[in-house]
Amino acid sequence: RYNQLLHGHPYWGVWRSIMKKLYSFPFLFVVLLLSSCVSLKDAEVTKYEDIASYKYIVVNSTDTLNSSAGATVYGGGYYSTGKSVNPKDVISGYLIKKGFVILPEKDDEVLSDTLIVNYGESGRRYVYLGMGYTTEVTIQFIAAQTNKIVCVTTAEGIGDTEADDIKEAITRALDAIFK
């Protein structure tokens, strides 16, 4: 009988619409809550020697990465932005700020004080319910004279574009060495 009274009410359609929205709100809230933030894994560092005992750095060449992000805005317009990053440049800039001298190639006169830096992307981790990912990088420091590993660091980053991911990951990996 109660149900029959409601169906005959002039505002039944409005109430029904409001109740449907309220019932779906908790689901949408949980989805937004779970996908709104990502915790990046802590950077990992393995030190075999103190890199502060070296003065010169040779960073091996890396390719420039171009990436872009875009979105359709209200009214049907499209907005996009493009970014590029060369990991060698990011690593070199960071190490220059820390007081190292960047050499274009190995110099036999200062070989005992020189580190060779290698860079590589070492993985991806999907986040945001599979709609995004973090990029993990590994940076390796090798003694130029002995070819022994001095230090290895790994970290992940996430940003608007893949270029942002890589910049953040490199910075986090290097920060972990110098903290």
Structure, explained:
The chain is an alpha/beta fold and 179 residues long. Helices cover 32% and strands 34% of the residues. The protein contains four helices and eight strands, in the order H-H-E-E-E-E-H-E-E-E-E-H. A hairpin with a 5-residue loop joins strand 3 and strand 4 (78-85). Helix 3 runs parallel beside helix 4 (162-178).
List keywords for this structure.
179 residues; alpha/beta; six-stranded mixed beta sheet; two-stranded antiparallel ribbon; 4 helices; elongated
Number of H/I helices: 4
% residues in beta strands:
25-35%
Care to count the β-strands?
A: 8
Shape: elongated
Main sheet summary: 6 strands, mixed
Give the secondary structure arrangement, pairings included.
Elements: H1 2-7, H2 12-35, E1 44-47, E2 56-59, E3 65-72, E4 78-85, H3 87-97, E5 101-102, E6 114-127, E7 132-143, E8 149-157, H4 162-178
Parallel strand pairs: 2-5, 2-6
Antiparallel strand pairs: 1-8, 3-4, 6-7, 7-8
